[in-house]
Amino acid sequence: MSSIEATPSLPATGAVHARRRPSTFTAYRWELRKLISQKRTYLGLGLAVVLPLIFVLVQNLHTHRGHEPGNIFASHITQSGLATPVLMLLFLSLFMLPLIAALVAGDIVAAEDSNGTLKTILTRSVDRGQVFAAKALAAMTYATIAVFLSAAVASIAGVASWGFHDVVTFSGTVVSAPEGLLLVFAANAVYLIPLLSVASVGVLLSTTTRNSAAAVVGTVGLVILLYIISGIPGIEGLKPYLLTEQFENWHGLLRTPTDWTPIWHSAWVCALYAIPSLVAAYLVFLRRDVTGG
Amino acid sequence: MAEEAPPVRARGLVKRYKEVLAVDHIDLNVNVGDVYGFLGPNGAGKTTTLRMALGLIVPTEGTVELFGRDPLREGARALEGVAGFVEAPRFYPYLAARKNLELLAALDGDGAKERIDEVLEIVELTPRAGHRVGGFSHGMRQRLGIAAALLRRPRLLMLDEPATGLDPGGMRDMRALIRRLADEGITVLLSSHQLPEVQELCDRVAIVDSGRVVYEGALADLRRQGGAGYRLRTTDDTRALEVLRAQAGIEHVIGTPPTPHGLGFQAEERDVGALTLALAQAGIGILALTPELATLEDLFFRLTEANGAGEPLERVS
After folding, report:
1. Residue B116, Cα to own-chain centre: how many angstroms?
2. Which of A175, B113, B197, B317 could form a disulfide with A179 if both were Cys (CB 3.0 to 4.6 A apart)?
3. Which of A7, A120, A289 sits opposite B91 (nearest CB)?
4. Where in the sequence is the domain holding A118, given as residue range(s)?
C-alpha cells in the first residue's frame, strides 16, 4: 500500500466538528439502489410483468363465445382491454402480489444481518431509526411498484389486444374508457392498503427472525393461515377482521355508485396489522444486538 | 467537555448471553494518540467489547463512551470521528468497490464522497474500483475496509484483527499503513491475537482472558513487570559466573562458560550497577552488558494460560 502523505489533514485530535448528517431520504435512496442491483429483485417484478402477458396471450388463443358466465369482467374480456387489468388484479391480489411483497419485505433486514452488512451501515453517520425507516419504505416502494407495474402491463396488453373501449363495473353499469382507466389504477392504489400491511408483517419478521427464508415463508404462511381461518365454519364474525379479507376491498371502487364502506373498513383493519408490526419492528431494530457477519 | 474526553472509556462492561458471560466487567482507557492493543485469545471477549463500543450490541451492564459520548444514548452522533470494523469488514458483494464506498459515503455525509478516490489510492485499490466486491480476495476486502474507515476522517480507528488472513506481504503492508495512520495523529484501537503485530505497533495494551481484563497499561511496563533480564559477555565468563553467583540481588543466572552468548541473569537496575563494580574489582573486563525484556508472547501466555509456563505476573486489573 502506498504512502498516506496525500491524505487530507485530519481534524485536530480531540476536536469535535459538527458533521452534516445524512437524511433518511439519502438512506432510502440507497436502499432502492441496493434493490435495483440485486438479481432477486427482478424475480418478483418479472412475475408482475410476465403473468399479465401470459394471461393476455392465452385469452387471445382462447375462442370466446359471447358473454361467458362467471365474473362480469371475465365475460367482457374481449369487449374492452380495460377488463384485463381488473381480472389480473382479481387473480394476483389473492396470493401472487402478497408473495412478491413478502419476497423483499422479508429479506430486507434479515439478509443484511446475516451478510454482516448491517453492522457496516450502522457504524456510519445514520441512526438506526433512519436505517429502519429507509428499509421499511424501500420494501413498501417495491410492493407498490410491483402492483402498478402489473397493472400497467395488463392495461397495455389488454388495450393492445381488445381496444380502449368503455368498460362495465361490478354493478353492470358502463363507464367511459378514460374513467375506466382511472378506476383501474385507483383500484390498484386501494389494494395497496392490505398489501402494504403484508409488507409490514414481512419487515417485522425480517427484523425479528434475522433469517430471510424464515421471514418470507413466515409472511406467506400468515396469508395462507388467514385464508384457512376464514374458511373455518362458525367464526364468520371474525372474517371481516382478517387481513386476507381486505384483499378484495378495491371492489367497492368498481361499483356504481362507489361503495366506500369496504374501503374504510379495510383501512382501519389493515392499520391494526400494519402499525403494531412496524412499531414492534422499529423497537426491536433500535435495541437489537447486531452480531451477524 | 467532549473535546477533553478520551477516545474510549469503558467502565464495568458486561455482556451476558443467557448462561455465557462473554464480557465480565471490562474497563478500558484509550487515550488520545494511543496505538492501543486489545489482546486476547479467541473467545476472550474482544469482538464483543468492540461491538459494544460501536453501539452494535447492548451491554448487559456498564457503559462505554467514545470521546465522551455513549453510542447507546446518542446513536450515530457518538460515532462522529470514529471508524473501523469488527471481525471482517463486510460489503455488498453485488456492488463494485467504488459503489460500496459511494453508499457508505452517502451514509457518512460531510463530504465523504469527495474522498473516495483518495482512500482507494491509499489502499491501492484504484485499479479494482469498478470490480464487484464479490470477486475480491480476503486481503482486498480488508483493504477496502480500511478505505471505508478512512472516508470518515476518523480520529479514532477501531480495527478488529485487520491482518488476519493476509499473506506475509499483506500483513507487512497493513502494519505499515496502521503505523502511518497513527503517525498522522489517529488514535488506534487494535484488537488482535497476533502478538508480533501488537508488539510492533502498540504502546499501550489491554489483555483480556475469559471476558476479563488481566492487564491494562503500557506495553513497556508489562515487559518490565515480566522480568527485566540482562545478558553479559566478559573477558572471563567462568570467573564472571562466580562473581554473579556471589553478588547480592542477582538472580536466575544462566549460561555455562564457554558460551558465545554470554551469561544471562535477572536483577534490579541498582544491583546491575553494583555488579559492574564487582566485576571491575575482580579484574574482569565487560565486553557487553545488554538488557533483555521478556517477549510479549511470554507475558501473554503467562497472563492468559492458567497452567502456562513461567512465573505468574501480577494481574493489573
Report:
1. 28
2. A175
3. A120
4. 24-287
In terms of pLDDT, which residue wins out, A37 or B170? A37
Provide the number of structural domains found in chain A. 1
Chains A–B, number of C-beta pairs less than 8 Å apart:
153
B225-249: per-residue pLDDT in tens? 766 688 899 999 999 999 999 998 8
pLDDT for the residue numbered A70: 65
> Please, which residues have CB within 8 angstroms of residue B53's CB and are 6 or more apart in sequence?
B8, B10, B64, B66, B71, B158, B189
The Cα of B303 is separated from the nearest Cα of chain A by a number of Å equal to: 28
Q: Is B37 on the interface with A (CB under 8 A)?
A: no
Full domain range(s) for residue B22: 2-218
Count of structural domains within chain B: 2
Same domain for B232 and B128: no
Q: Which residues pair with B13 in a beta bridge?
A: B26
Q: Give the pLDDT of residue A13.
A: 38
Residues within 8 A of A (CB atoms), B 210-239 only:
none
Instruction: Please check whether residue B303 lies inside any domain of the structure.
Output: no
Give the Cα separation of B206 and B218 in Å (integer).
9
Question: What is the pTM assigned to this prediction?
Answer: 0.84
Same domain for B124 and B272, yes or no, is: no
Q: Do B95 and A34 touch (CB under 8 A)?
A: yes
Q: Within its chain, how far is the Cα of A53 from the centroid?
A: 20
